[in-house]
Every structure is written in C-alpha cells, then in structure tokens.
Amino acid sequence: MPQPVYEQLVDALSARGGAVPALKCKEFLALIEELFTPEEAEMAVQMPLQATSVEALTAKTGGSTEKVEQLLEGMADKGLVTCRERNGVKYYSLLPLMAGIFEYQFMKGEVNDRTKRLARLFEDYFNVIWGSARQGPPTPALLPGARVVTVEREIPAGTEIYPYDQVSYYIRNSEYIAVSTCYCRHHGELLDNPCDKPKEVCLSFGPSAKFNIERGFGRQLTKEEALKILDLSEREGLVHCSSNTGKYVDFICNCCLCHCVVLRSIKESAMPRMVVASGFIVAVDEEECIGCGDCVD
To answer: Per the domain annotation, does 126 fall within a domain?
Structure first.
C-alpha cells in the first residue's frame, strides 16, 4: 500500500501537464515510488508550479536551508527537478513526467539494476496509457504536446519556413549545445528490445543544455559537431521532434518510429492530431498525383 504522499505526488505531477498524463493507478504509483524517496516526494508536493528558490521552500516547509538545498540538489542530480540560476540565485522546478522525468532517467545511457527496473515500470505504465488512448482521450488537449521539426532542405522550394522549424537556426544561435543518449532507444535496450539507429543523437540548447552538461546528462558540443549529428540523423531517417508548448525550442529528439514514446503514442492514439503537430497540412493535387506513395512513406 503506497504512502499517502505518493497519491499527493500524482496530483502534483498531473498539474505539470506534459505529453503523458499522471494517472492514479497501481502502475503509476509503483513507478513514482521507485523514482522518489518518501522525503523527495514530500518536497515535490510542496513545490509550486513556478520555479522556486531554496529560501522560499525553506519558509514553506519549515525545514533548514541546508537540508532543503541538499534534498533539491539530489533531486536535480536524479533528473526529478531542474535547476537554473538567475542573478546568483538557484531556482528549482518539479519536472513533468514527459518531457522531463522519463528522459532524464535514461539519457546517461546507464545499464544497472535501477535503470532496468525503471524501464520495466515505465513500460508497464505506458501500456496502461496506450490502452486508454485507443479509446480516445476523455478530454481532448487544447494544444498538441509535441511537434515534428523540419529540416529546411527537405521542404520544397517556395514553402515558407519559420525560425521555429529551422533546426540549424537553434544550433547556430545557442550558447550551449549538448548531446545525450536517446532515452527511448536506451529504454528499449534495457527491455532487451534494441534499435539499430544511432543512440547519441538527442540535442538540447541554451539553459537546458547547460543543466545537462553540469549534471552529467549530456556532453557539450560545438556548433559544427551538432550539425554533423543533425546530418547523421537525417541520413538515418530519424524524425526531429520537440515540445509544442513553449515559445522556444530547448531540445530536439531525433526519433525512430519503433521506440520513440511520442511516435508510438501517435500510432496507438484514436486522435493522433491531439498528440502531435507539424505546422503543415497535407494537400493532394489530384491532377499531379501519380499514386507513387512517397508521401505516405
């Protein structure tokens, strides 16, 4: 029987939104009990939706500054919260399940008893989610949680490309760039279901990249190295995906259809347009179409 704090934690994670909902079911409770110690769960449920400082959480929880900071730093190292510094003050945010906690558990590429347990627990929970998705979501989201990011040379001449959809734009204009292990393919590998696509191809930018480098979740890249990874991903036929819920792109996943959790969700969903957006709508010119099937592939 899970401790009551874990049921409160389900509500806290649900409030963060994300591509995968937090449901009060035995599979999800088992997962978060593995992810969070009871003490970490207590801290997580106290965290507001906006980023907060050690001082603010100390005042709210009544603990000591040293204890609160030690706990938050440990949670950041585990990929349960993010930490960003502004004007010399660290601010912490509880991550959503996805994109967030799931990715951080596997992006180091570690193989050990804990990562294997987590891989199985996540898979058990995803199966619950996909079972629900086949019936259609009870309350459709107002905005798809993911989007496909295009590589500009793949778009026919005359098509307008906005900066958001130009992958190289973010590479060339980011102070920090990091690459990490593909969490989805590593998750599959831990379940004895490997993929033959490259694994070290997932990119992060700006403050997210800085956090990943500092905490050991990724390694720093030059712009030239990042462009080479983008070219490799293109050659391997990987799909460039990012969040659809922010003004800026801070990560780009180079995804395969067989392992990517978001793309698998689209395949399983009764309403795929609620899951992902591309910024494009298919239009068929019936006079020009020869039925080759390339657009389907």
So the answer is: no
Q: Is residue 137 part of a domain?
A: yes
Crossing angle, helix 65-77 and helix 38-46, to 10 degrees?
100
Q: What's the number of domains the chain is made of? A: 2
- In which element (H, E) is residue 177 found? strand 177-181
The answer to whether 254 touches 203, Cβ cutoff 8 Å, is: yes
Tell me whether residue 41 is in a domain: yes
pLDDT in tens, the chain (297 residues): 568 999 999 999 999 988 788 999 999 999 999 999 999 999 999 999 999 999 999 999 998 999 999 999 999 999 999 999 999 999 999 999 988 999 999 999 999 999 999 999 999 999 998 776 555 544 444 334 444 444 444 434 332 323 334 677 788 889 999 999 999 999 999 999 999 999 999 999 999 999 999 999 999 999 999 999 988 988 998 888 776 555 567 888 888 888 887 776 666 655 555 444 445 556 677 777 877 776 665
Say how far apart CA 80 and CA 20 lie, in whole Å: 15
Residue among 89, 6, 4 nearest 44 (CA): 6
Helices (H) and strands (E) in the chain, counts: 12, 10
Q: What are the backbone dihedrals phi and psi of residue 84, each rounded to the nearest 5 degrees, phi first?
A: -130, 145
Inter-residue contact 258 to 195 (CB < 8 Å): yes
Domain range for 256: 131-277
Q: Report the predicted TM-score, pTM, of the whole model to 2 decimal places.
A: 0.80
Q: Is residue 165 part of a domain?
A: yes
Establish how many alpha carbons lie within 13 A of residue 134's alpha carbon, considering only the half-sphere containing its beta carbon: 6
